[in-house]
Structure formats: structure tokens, C-alpha cells
UniProtKB/TrEMBL annotation:
UniProt-recorded name of the protein: TPR domain-containing protein
Coiled coil regions, renumbered to chain: none
Annotated segments matching region Disordered: 51-70
InterPro entries: TPR-like_helical_dom_sf, TPR_rpt
Cross-referenced Pfam families: TPR_17
PROSITE patterns in the cross-refs: TPR (PS50005)
Length: 70
């Protein structure tokens, strides 16, 4: 998480860093923090929604839509 945070500080438009930090937060049980990062990643790169659906749909806690509040 720290490395992804550093990456977003160095490049605030690095969508994949937000995506991966959100994934790490989700795996650590931080659904709220995860959703914030995933939303930011999607704002920067809206085409990533298919990747989110594929990766997060099988995670504990529900689908991507549930995690993101969609």
C-alpha cells in the first residue's frame, strides 16, 4: 500500500496505482478505502471498469458494484 501511495504522490494521474492500492486495501479488509481508490482509478481511466468487474466480483464482500456503491 505504501508503494502505491508513493506512486500516486509522484504521479497523481497514475490510474493503475490507485487500482492496485484499492485492491490491496480490499484484501486487507478496508472496503471504504478500497472503494475510494477504485473510484479515483476509474475517474482517471474509465475503461478499467471491465478489469474491476473481473477482479473484484469474486472477492469477499461482494461484487465491484457493491464495493463501489454502484
Amino acid at each position: 500500500i505504501e508503494l502505491f501511495t508513493e506512486a500516486t504522490e509522484l504521479n497523481p494521474n497514475f490510474a493503475e496505482a490507485y487500482h492496485e492500492r484499492g485492491r490491496a486495501k480490499l484484501l486487507n479488509g478496508d472496503k471504504e478505502g478500497s472503494a475510494e481508490d477504485m473510484k479515483k482509478g476509474l475517474e482517471l481511466n474509465p475503461k478499467e471498469i471491465q478489469n474491476f468487474n473481473g477482479q473484484y466480483g469474486n472477492q469477499p464482500g461482494g461484487s465491484t458494484g457493491n464495493i463501489l456503491g454502484l
